[in-house]
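Backbone-to-sequence.
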């Protein structure tokens, strides 16, 4: 069965809260239109494979911006911050490594462990230029299709195709291949800032306060944040406030003015202006549309 993520729910460290599949079959497939709904910054223990089948997409993974066009794909390793946006339609598989086998199995040791243990690999872009790249994508999409149709014995067939794809990926990763890795110190600092922002959206937030939080200069904060998230800290704060407001409008019966205050907007006219800039309608109009 294929799902649509829509709103990505995370905890205070940006770890995604949504369960992908279940304990018996820990995998989920998603079909998303990024022109309608962006995938916000998050991370999870699961491995993820994304295939762009229409349009163009941009992903931020740790410090790096990655551009994907129709036909290309990307593998994202466990534990890395990432987000996706653009005018694209994507299919993704998000799965826990236990799908392939337990940690004492040969499948885990030969297929999963080399990926999780590779501290140089946070992601790997796959084009359609090399046969092995095409085969990785082909097998992942075969797994996607059998899960979607839930054909006979689809669980074993899906695991077979994913295992084959990961084995091909492992066999073709070269030491000198350009793959992205993150600076652990910077990464942990940014996670701390993200957690603080999420927990204090209603409070006054500025670069001075955030830089003191992680004991660095404002210039270091700005550079690290831009490299990791792709936005300045204040741009991210504004985005989070608007996204939180939109989510509260959709999921609660709170007054618009209370939602604005809860999300750190003390000026209703400014809140309405920023909201309309992002969603082309006022907060009140948005609420009415969602109720129809």
């Amino acid at each position: 069965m294929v799902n649509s993520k829509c709103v990505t729910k995370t905890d205070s460290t940006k770890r995604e809260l949504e369960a992908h599949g279940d304990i018996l079959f820990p995998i989920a497939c998603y079909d998303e239109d990024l022109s309608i709904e962006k995938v916000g910054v998050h991370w999870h223990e699961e491995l993820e494979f994304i295939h762009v089948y229409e349009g163009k997409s941009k992903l931020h993974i740790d410090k790096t911006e990655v551009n994907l066009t129709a036909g290309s794909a990307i593998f994202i390793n466990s534990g890395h911050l990432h987000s996706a946006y653009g005018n694209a339609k994507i299919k993704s598989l998000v799965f826990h490594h236990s799908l392939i086998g337990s940690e004492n199995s040969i499948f885990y040791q030969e297929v999963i462990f080399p990926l999780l243990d590779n501290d140089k690999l946070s992601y790997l872009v796959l084009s359609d230029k090399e046969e092995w790249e095409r085969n990785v994508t082909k097998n992942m999409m075969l797994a996607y299709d059998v899960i979607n149709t839930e054909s006979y014995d689809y669980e074993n067939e899906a695991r077979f195709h994913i295992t084959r794809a990961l084995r091909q990926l492992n066999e073709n990763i070269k030491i000198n291949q350009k793959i992205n890795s993150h600076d652990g110190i910077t990464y942990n600092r940014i996670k701390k800032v993200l957690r603080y922002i999420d927990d204090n959206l209603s409070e006054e937030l500025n670069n001075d306060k955030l830089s003191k939080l992680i004991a660095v200069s404002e210039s270091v904060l700005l550079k690290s944040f831009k490299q990791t998230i792709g936005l300045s800290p204040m741009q991210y704060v504004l985005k989070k406030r608007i996204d939180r407001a939109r989510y509260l409008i959709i999921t609660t019966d709170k007054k618009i003015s209370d939602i604005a205050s809860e999300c750190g907007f003390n000026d209703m006219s400014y809140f309405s202006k920023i909201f309309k800039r992002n969603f082309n309608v006022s907060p009140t109009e948005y609420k009415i549309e969602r109720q129809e």
